[in-house]
Amino acid sequence: MKKKALSVILAIVMVFSATAVPASAIDFEASAEPITKVLAKVVGTVFETLVGTVNLFLRENDKFIDEDEYVYDNFYEGTADFIDEAKAGAKWSLGQSSMSLVPENWEEYNLFLGGFISEQNFFTNDVREVLDDMKVRVIALNDGSDRGTAVFATVDSIGVSNGDIRHIRGLLEDFAAKNNINSINLFSTHTHSGIDTQGLWTDIFRKWPKNIFSALTGIIETEQGTDPEYMEFFYSKVCEAITEAVDSMTEGTMTFARKDIGERYFSNKNRPSTSSLDTELKRFVFTPDDSSVTPTIILNMSAHPDVVGLATDDDPTKGHGISGDYIYYIGETINNAGYNFMFFNGSIAGIYIGRISAKADLRVDIAANYGREIGKMVLGMTMSESEILADDYLMSLNLTAEQTEGHNYTPWYEGWEPVTETELDPILNIKLAQVEVHVTNPVIKAAGKLGVVNYLIKKSGRDYYVTTEIGYMELGKDVKVAFVPGEICTDLIYGGNQLTAEGSVNSKDYEGKTLCEIFGDDVIIFGLANDAVGYIVPENDYCMALAFGHYQELLSLGKEEATTMFEGYEKLVG
């Protein structure tokens, strides 16, 4: 009877964690009140105690490794040294590839969308149709300094765990050695309508009861959340795309531009204490010396592509359709203009689509309108308003009067100011590091014991640790990039209300440095880099009380996560 009760409690906790949508979170003004802070901490403590008690009855599986036997392989450190000047006569070389991650026989797999499990579709986001595509996009980049080639792959997925990324690196070990590859980096767009490559959004009515029984009794083995046959397909396509990109490298020039497009395109809907927002588009353009080779646009922006995957009663797709969300339509717009497209997400913990500019019957139409508009802005960053108006392609993509009726719609190019594009010297410095994060979140401990996600967990006495990766990169003399392995709260990058005693739930000031203080105010963020560790929340504002604007803590490694990572970033500066 006791085990049955524990099973029910755990199932409720896991469903609650996976399905919670923080739209009704108490706003910041209320959460700043002392009595509200106290109540939030009480609720958070009770929740942690409840789930922690459940954990006492759950057995560890083969993913839990004693510290004296714990080995993590297939890690790349990056370039052996950093350079300040380009090698004499050096040029950029870039190779590109893009492939679909949707099998032709996708109906024969047991597939679920990663990102939502909601009551509108009876908690089963099983795949029933393909709306556009789920892609892997790859670039291979070399600065001609004889220090090797860096590979960057981005997947249209909610996230890919570090264990799966290291597996892909292992499959490419011989290829990497043969081609002098100094790093293989994998990122996610975080679309909530791609096939689940993590395993949290799985066949919950079959796998979770089985895994709960296994964790309670040890009689049977746990079953990973992802479909094993699909993951083999996934590994093979990512490896194929990486190989193709490296084999297609060609010399050319690289330029960089960045433009703030303003807050009307973004919103912060689920972290009330966060006050900062990244509203910039950062664009790299690689132009091959050979005019017969297609140029490549690389976009970095903060995005939370959760538009298509959410099931709603008035949308017949009801969260069952595979889609790259608005990232797909940004890429489509750029591809049709004659460019390859590569995407890196930014600081995404509290940033969402902020502009629904037209009438749309389906959520995928909303994503398409937004994505195409962003795509046009990327193409027009260095153009004046008059140049945009004279561009037949950009103007052909405008929405109709019927589509915009009643939406107070203002065309994106009105009052548009161009930005300057600068050429980057062929300098690519990249350094990666491993950090061990102490897992204090009992929900993550429970998920680990249920075995749904591909993580190795180091045991040290009663403490658990997860190894993840951080990184830093320089492109040219001035562009600086921090690799962040999860969804980071933006105040940790730029500073803000969340880092103050007044604005935090624990009434304490954040004691560390922000990423801007570590790397400089102009640092760019590549999020979900080489891992998907969930949300990264500052310790001074950490509290597991969902209803008080603290949804992110449920899907974080724990309160020490940000502190540990930032100590690692400071070491990278050296």
The description of the largest β-sheet is: 9 strands, mixed
What sort of overall outline do the alpha carbons produce when their principal axes are compared? globular
* Total number of strands: 23
- What is the percent of helical residues? 25-40%
Structural class: alpha/beta
Counting DSSP H or I runs of 4 or more residues, the number of helices is 16
Poorly predicted regions: 1-31
Strand content: 15-25%
Q: What's the overall average pLDDT, rounded?
A: 89
Q: What is Rg? A: 23 Å
Separation of the first and last Cα atoms: 57 Å
How would you characterize the overall build of this protein?
This protein is an alpha/beta fold and 574 residues long. The protein has a domain at 2-73 and 425-494 and 516-573. The protein contains 16 helices and 23 strands. Strands 2, 5, 6, 7, 9, 11, 12, 14 and 16 form a nine-stranded mixed sheet that branches. Strands 1, 17, 18, 19, 20 and 22 form a six-stranded mixed sheet that branches. The chain has a two-stranded antiparallel ribbon with strand order 3-8. Helix 3 packs parallel to helix 13 (442-450), helix 4 (162-171) packs across helix 7 (228-247) and helix 8 (325-336) packs across helix 9 (363-379). It is globular. Residues 1-31 have low confidence and may be disordered.
Provide the fold topology.
Layout: H1 2-19, H2 28-31, H3 34-55, E1 64-66, E2 92-100, E3 113-114, E4 129-130, E5 135-142, E6 149-155, H4 162-171, H5 173-178, E7 181-188, E8 194-195, H6 204-217, H7 228-247, E9 250-260, E10 266-267, E11 280-288, E12 296-301, E13 321-322, H8 325-336, E14 340-345, E15 352-353, H9 363-379, H10 385-389, H11 392-396, H12 401-404, E16 422-424, E17 428-438, H13 442-450, E18 457-460, E19 463-475, E20 479-483, E21 487-488, H14 491-494, H15 515-519, E22 524-526, E23 535-536, H16 561-573
Parallel strand pairs: 1-18, 4-13, 6-7, 12-14, 20-22, 21-23
Antiparallel strand pairs: 2-5, 2-9, 3-8, 5-6, 9-11, 9-16, 10-15, 11-12, 17-19, 18-19, 19-20
